[in-house]
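> example.struct
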């Protein structure tokens, strides 16, 4: 057999080794090269919304959670709107209410002492002066209340009744032994309830009649 000599080609070119940029990692830090997606943990509010959505779907028979979530969002927005409306209504009511006049200006002297404080300190109140100051500010209904409390004070001082802020008009009527005083007190109690708790504007004529009745009853207590 004859042997075939193959020509061997030897590459004698110089090979230059490649070098990596030490900061090559910076080129691969964008979102395109992040393959591990981390799911953010849900907060308390998100878990609450999921809970609501679950029950909405269960109670109302909704087709899927996505629909249920839409109904939950609409319901929460509706509730938020109602709360805002209620808060605005309360603020407006406070501003327009006669008890809220301190917001705009100086309070009158009778507003400094609350009604409850007056009842608790009945024996120490100068009702005559208090009523005069009240009428100067045009608050006739409040003046009638002070007339009523003044009458209770005077009857207590004369031992006609035993005053107690927890008692009712009926309690006091039962205590009054004098028939004339009992009848007068029954009538002024009716006037007081009608004027103080009545939702109407107290005109001058009605006030003057009530005022004269209270003053006459006060004078009759001896």
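> example.seq
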């Amino acid at each position: 057999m004859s042997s075939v000599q193959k020509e061997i080609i030897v590459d004698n070119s110089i090979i230059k080794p490649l070098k990596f940029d030490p900061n090559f990692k910076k080129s691969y830090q964008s979102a395109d090269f992040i393959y591990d997606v981390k799911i953010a943990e849900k907060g308390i509010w998100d878990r609450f919304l999921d809970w609501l959505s679950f029950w909405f779907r269960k109670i109302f028979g909704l087709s899927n959670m996505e629909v249920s979530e839409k109904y939950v969002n609409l319901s929460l927005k509706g509730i938020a709107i109602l709360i805002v409306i209620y808060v605005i209504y309360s603020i407006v009511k406070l501003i327009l209410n006669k008890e809220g006049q301190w917001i705009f200006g100086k309070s009158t002297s009778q507003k400094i002492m609350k009604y409850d404080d007056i009842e608790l300190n009945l024996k120490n109140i100068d009702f005559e002066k208090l009523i005069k100051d009240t009428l100067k500010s045009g608050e006739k209904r409040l003046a009638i209340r002070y007339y009523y409390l003044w009458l209770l004070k005077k009857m207590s001082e004369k031992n006609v009744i035993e005053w107690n802020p927890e008692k009712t008009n009926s309690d006091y009527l039962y205590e009054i032994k004098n028939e004339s005083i009992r009848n007068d007190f029954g009538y002024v109690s009716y006037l007081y309830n009608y004027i103080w708790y009545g939702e109407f504007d107290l005109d001058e004529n009605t006030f003057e009649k009530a005022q004269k009745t209270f003053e006459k009853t006060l004078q009759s207590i001896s």
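> remarks
The mean pLDDT is 78.
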